[in-house]
């Protein structure tokens, strides 16, 4: 798996430092509240499990599965809800936990949906942010690392559902795509 990586974009050490910083920022901002961290499957799973351990205060966790990429390198533009929340969120403080914001389409669809459920607040926490690719202007409240316009894998991010378990974020060698 690692032999297919051309270069590292976010190292394991930088991941740990970034998650610790975000956990602290959230903890300060949500003092006295019990936020619900909503993990967007599958990419955000690794970030989510690290983030909630860096958040040392009462919180709840929930999961949603939304898909727009499938096996493709480009967002399809069509966002499908594959798994919805199990609980009502009216009056609750929500933190959407994402691995990456790219075009912003996934987030736009999610925010629209959650707004109809009358949450008290909706904030976005994304480990990676790729502003160069943005098609929809979404506000990201908590950003881990701003990354260049390259297709990334690792720490939850996949190519054809693989590479999510790499403990760093990197770029694949071009020949990996050419083989497919
Ligand atoms: O800003 P956008 O262009 O919408 O891209 C961001 C979304 O794309 C990825 O999900 P994907 O649909 O690939 O599903 P996955 O997390 O299960 O890999 C990622 O996890 C975000 O949810
Ligand atoms: O760079 C990326 N890599 C993997 N999945 C993604 N989904 C949006 N952007 C990316």
TrEMBL record:
Pathway participation: Purine metabolism; IMP biosynthesis via salvage pathway; IMP from hypoxanthine: step 1/1; Purine metabolism; GMP biosynthesis via salvage pathway; GMP from guanine: step 1/1
Pfam family, one: Pribosyltran
GO MF term set: glycosyltransferase activity
UniProt-listed Enzyme Commission number(s): 2.4.2.8
Transmembrane region(s): none
InterPro entries hit by this protein: HGPRT, Hxn_phspho_trans, PRTase-like, PRTase_dom
Coiled-coil intervals: none
Protein function: Purine salvage pathway enzyme that catalyzes the transfer of the ribosyl-5-phosphate group from 5-phospho-alpha-D-ribose 1-diphosphate (PRPP) to the N9 position of the 6-oxopurines hypoxanthine and guanine to form the corresponding ribonucleotides IMP (inosine 5'-monophosphate) and GMP (guanosine 5'-monophosphate), with the release of PPi.
Obligatory cofactor(s): Mg(2+)
Compartments where located: Cytoplasm
Domain of life: Bacteria
Protein name in UniProt: Hypoxanthine phosphoribosyltransferase
Main localization (coarse): cytoplasm
Reactions it catalyzes: GMP + diphosphate = guanine + 5-phospho-alpha-D-ribose 1-diphosphate; IMP + diphosphate = hypoxanthine + 5-phospho-alpha-D-ribose 1-diphosphate
Domain Phosphoribosyltransferase: 11-160
Similarity remark: Belongs to the purine/pyrimidine phosphoribosyltransferase family.
Keywords for the protein's UniProt record, in alphabetical order: Cytoplasm, Glycosyltransferase, Magnesium, Metal-binding, Nucleotide-binding, Purine salvage, Transferase
